[in-house]
Amino acid sequence: MARKEPIGAGAVSSQVALARFFNVCRQHVREVNAAVRLDPEGPWPWEHIWAVFGFAPETDREIEELQEPLLRPKAIQHATGYNARELRGFAADPRSRPANFPHAISLTKRVTRYRASELRAYLAGEPLPTYPILKPRRTNQSTDPKTVSKSRANSPNSTGGNDILAAIASNNAPPVEEDRK
């Protein structure tokens, strides 16, 4: 079957469509967007949505499965016979869930969803589907003391202190304190 568009092409173009995918009411789309760190305004490319969950699908089957709307816990309850309390327990402690049971996806503190493809596999007694993991991006920032920029040498790093490599590069290394006994 010939592909008309490259893998992952397309986007969720409206809040209504995004609400349908996350299976939330339209009023809660912005809350879910903020919680999963999607842009507040669309369109939302599928690649961005999948990246939130750490996936990088490669085949048509994977794309189709990852574009299916997520399921509410009620659907899982009806299909599996587990009650809401048991599902919350499985979500809170994944080790307590039965083997091959669908993984809970926490969208917000109070909103949990499940993948339809995982439910189908569980009900059929098959292994859960797996998807290629998104590879971490490489950063282009150099950590070589000889090439650290002066602007970076004077800026605090994420821990609030000065960047040690930049200080070494500029010969302003902080004094080393010796252990006192």
From TrEMBL:
Residues 139-161 have a biased composition (Polar residues). It comes from Tropicimonas aquimaris. This is Uncharacterized protein. Residues 130-181 are annotated as: Disordered.
